[in-house]
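Sequence only, no structure available. Ideas?
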Amino acid sequence: MERKFIEYDFGRVDSERMRLNVGPQHPSTHGVLRLEIELEGEIVTDVIPHIGYLHRCFEKYCEQMQYPQVIPYIDRLDYIASMNNEWPFVMGVEKMMNIQVPERVEYIRVIFAELNRIANHQIAVATFGMDAGAFTPFLYLFRDREMILNLFEHTSGARLLYNYFWVGGLAHDVPPNFKDTALNIIKTVRATNEEVMRLLMGNKIFVERTVKVGILPADVAINFACSGPVLRGSGVEWDLRKAQPYSIYDRFDFNVCVGSNEIGVIGDSWNRNIVRMNEMEQSCRIIEQAIAQMPNEGDVREKFPKKVRPPKGEIYCSAENPKGELGFYLVADGGNKPFRLKSRPTSFVNLAVLPEICKGYMVADLILILGSIDIVLGEVDR
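Reply:
I predicted one. Tokens follow.
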């Protein structure tokens, strides 16, 4: 049975409509998010996201901290991708202070950022599968994610919040078996992803639950400033690693993954997830190239400044996080603390498009559409 989008006049007043609360509870709303929804029968006619349950005054706290002390706070934004979070901040401070980090540091940062991208997408696809009623892929993907977290723990001493990318370098050098461990992880990830493609992404029930559901047209995605797999799932080929190369990404051969009409419709929930699956393979390619090119010698603390005091000025620095563009606007007054710090959080921006892509679908589709956006409330509320 083909799923059909139902047209309604959303502006009319109708006493038959009912308003319900969905959440805030973690299993269904992927965090402490409350959705106020309006239904006509089982058709969603309006969605209002209510946020703020996890607000921690991130920006104002950071303005009271010295620059190195800001990094642990940044870890707690999208806590699924902490390695990636730290990078645009330290990169921005390094640009303001004219610090050129060693080659070895750049390669290690790329490897850890791509490993964290894989770990993020594993959670995104696994939990989305659970939203659709598929439990087995969750076990397979989380099993592989443990390998990545073990390497992070062996290197940084932490499994979730790392405080590893420091201004001018890295907190610690990588362990002696780092290259072999990373290559073994890639080998396992590829084998598991082949199985998940058959078990989940090609599953008839999963396809029928996700194809033509939550369609996000490219122009709407651009107007809402969406980024990451949410934008690329709508067919827009925009990835900061290619469009505005930073660090050493211009040295690697990889593809920008976008949605297609091969199975689903460009911009639907299925395409947003197939983009994440394909991006894991591209991350594996980048890691292989980085390991092959990485210098074996070099002090990862060589460029540490004695004092982190950027000169007066301002900068906006962004990077392609697993969920999309994460940026920091930083104003320095010459002191040892940021005068102003403002983050451009990916999940917050992407969540704004939810009401636009839920109207006219069944209430049973609502959680799937939300899960396809892949948000973390620590980054939404900050």
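The longest helix spans residues 103-131.
Hope that gets you unstuck.
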